[in-house]
Amino acid sequence: MGLGAALLWGLADYFAAVASRSRGALRVVLGFHLAALVTLTALVLATKGLARVSLTQVAVLVGVGAFGWVSYLAFYGALAIGPISVLSPIVSGYAAVTVLLAVVMMALAAALLADLAGEFDVDSWLALVAGRDVWHNGLPHHETLTVIAHGAVWIDQQWLSQLASYGLYLLGGLGLLGVCIVALFASRPDATITNSSPPIRAA
User: 164: which residues sit within 8 A by CB, 6+ positions away?
Assistant: First the structure.
């Protein structure tokens, strides 16, 4: 299957170069994306592939598709003016970029771990206290942790994350809890890029 995929990619590059030089890169990219859209739409309707996909996930997929469309446009534009033997190996180097990004993410996670002790804020401790309350007493139906609202009817909407945080704390203390939170944070490239040192909140 690997050899077959390599053969098909090579043929695709060749025919894309020929078509781009005669028809233009924009027309070629629009044409094959339109053909792919029709095929994939039929598959989605037949298999109900988007039945469990949320609107947020669809928005992310649309964004990824836009990036892919621009990358193909640049690639086919380059094929229209340059030799395939030079361009294809360069484009295949995207794997090295992926590895580089992974190393950057790991470095950011290590930096967050180095400053772990000072990253817990008031919400972190409140989440641990609330998780301890759920652990020992079950789901609360009245406010018990604050003075002003004490005794008021209230259901903790974040009880599950608080309970999970307290469970991690019991297993490995603040260290394990912090490591798990940093790992979750580092797995989100958007959050890592926009804010490299957020306060660690157990909830």
Answer: 131
